[in-house]
Amino acid sequence: MTRAWILPMSLVLSGVLVATAQVRDGSPVLAVVLLLVFAVLAWLYSPLAFPRSIGAVEAQRRSAADGRPVVYWRAGCVYCLRLRIRLGRDARRSHWVDIRRDPAGAAEVRAANGGDETVPTVVVAGRPHVNPDPAWVRGQLPPSA
Known about the structure:
About 50% of the residues lie in helices and about 10% in strands.
């Protein structure tokens, strides 16, 4: 299991334990509600909530060709999740690089942030922007086809 899945799987396991305790206490409806809450949180903090990641080299190549921003992120990052949710369907119009899965992506982020792996780092036209406003990022996306 990769590090990106530790938090989501912990949330699922916690949800199952809490739900089991609620069922034993005679509250099956509350158990189902709590299990659903834990499942949603697990999904939000998993890589599944983000567009498919590609490698940093490939993202840079594609960005140079189509002008789309490159978003460096990692699962479990609240600010990355905020950016992803606020972009909505527009998130697909940028290139996403998971720095936990791609060492070259992590190196790019460290180079842009003085050695820190601060995400989300969005690169637009070769310039990095650390934790930018989602509305600004949406303005940098090319028009949808």
